[in-house]
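Below is how a single chain appears once it has passed through the pipeline. First comes the sequence as given, then the structure the pipeline wrote out for it. We keep one example in the README because the format questions we get most often are answered faster by looking than by reading.
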Amino acid sequence: MKTESNKNHWEKIYQYSQSNELSWTEGIPYISLYQIHKLQLPKEAGIIDVGGGTSNLVDYLLKDRYSNITVLDISETAITKAKTRLGSLADKVTWIVSDITQFKSKKQFDFWHDRATFHFLTNDADIQKYISIAHNAIKDQGFLSLSTFSNEGPSECSGLKIKQYNEETLSNVFTPFFEKSWCVQHKHYTPFDTEQSFILCMFKHLSKIHSL
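Resulting structure:
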């Protein structure tokens, strides 16, 4: 899907749907928060939520006094909704409207969080763009948290085909720039009480010298 039509698709999703009508909505993003707390990231750590949309993760990070948060999403509508929800607290966050495959980061991050964006990239060219962008945007020894539909999960989402992964295939895609720390399968329960099967992997970014 071309970037412009992709953007139009997601603008319509967020324009015509409330959060409780979106399958990926979480009241409390407990798995994401657990990862960040487990890593004991300092409060000034650079954290980016890729495909953050209207996710509540940014709310909880602000409550936990993280001070260097970036939220990226292709949908300007989603970003606007998140900013409106946060009110004046939105000024404490860097907001970026961009297709992830077109993202040009001006800084590097300690923690790259992607809960369900990567699996929408279904062709090799876009997958390689994503890996290259993440490689350049994450600090040496920084972390990449990636969650995708597993082989037991849905084959499409929001009217779009997705690419399913398991621990082995997801790990192999990010070699040699990233080293797997751990992977786990988990069930996400949608706002309308259905189950979705995900694979979640944590990767450590190898130094650029090491990965050459």
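The chain has one domain: 3-211.

See the next section for the split statistics.
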